[in-house]
Amino acid sequence: MTKQKNEELKKVRKEKNEELKKVRKELKQIITDKDKMLKKVMKEKKEELEKLGDINSALIIKERQSTYELQEAHTELIKGFRDLSGEGSVVGVKRMGEVDEKPFLKVCEQRFNGENVGLQHAMLCSEWQKNINDSAWYPFKLVVTGEKMKEVVDDEDDKLKKLSEELGEDVMNAVTTALEELNDFNPSGRYSVPALWNFEHGRKATLSEGIAHMTQQIKNLKRQRT
């Protein structure tokens, strides 16, 4: 009886071992298949990313090329406007960062007489243009506008406050405007740069506005010659 039980136990163990081997084999196959599938998916994703990287690189190159072409067109328009634009033009060339001399002249006319008006006017404009171009003077502060940080002229700057006290608010505003223009158009250089300007609306002119205005100017010149 005991021998029979031992035989039965051996048989049961053998069957269990066979089942266990079978389960292990199936699990191994499942893991292998999953691994192959995962590697395949990863390979596909890698290829997709590489394609996206190529597309992105191409788009960046195209964008840079378009930006360069726009800058070239902008530069050529500025050259053309120097020859075609005159007093009272709606669109023309404005030197950004160049101080408006009119408020200085008004103050000089109120304080001086004769030749001194022109002399003092020239000296003051020259002095403040030099100050504006001086990178060592940094009368700006950071302010939060919405979710962005923006640099603006600090109206509490000692030099600007003193200028306002000595020559008036209009002169200080002229200097502030020139500083803002430099900070927008040439912050690294701190020297005046030419820009297409819409004088009617007091803002930078778009490329299409510049082209349209220049086309009209050329037509006007042709009419005058015929």
Automatic annotation (TrEMBL):
Coiled-coil region list: 2-40
Alphabetical keyword list: Coiled coil
Domain of life: Eukaryota
Boundaries of every Factor of DNA methylation 1-5/IDN2 domain copy: 94-223
GO biological process: gene silencing by siRNA-directed DNA methylation
One Pfam family matching this protein: XH
Leader peptide range in chain numbering: none
InterPro entries named among the record's database cross-references: FDM1-5/IDN2, FDM1-5/IDN2_XH
The protein's name: Factor of DNA methylation 1-5/IDN2 domain-containing protein
Organism field: Brassica oleracea
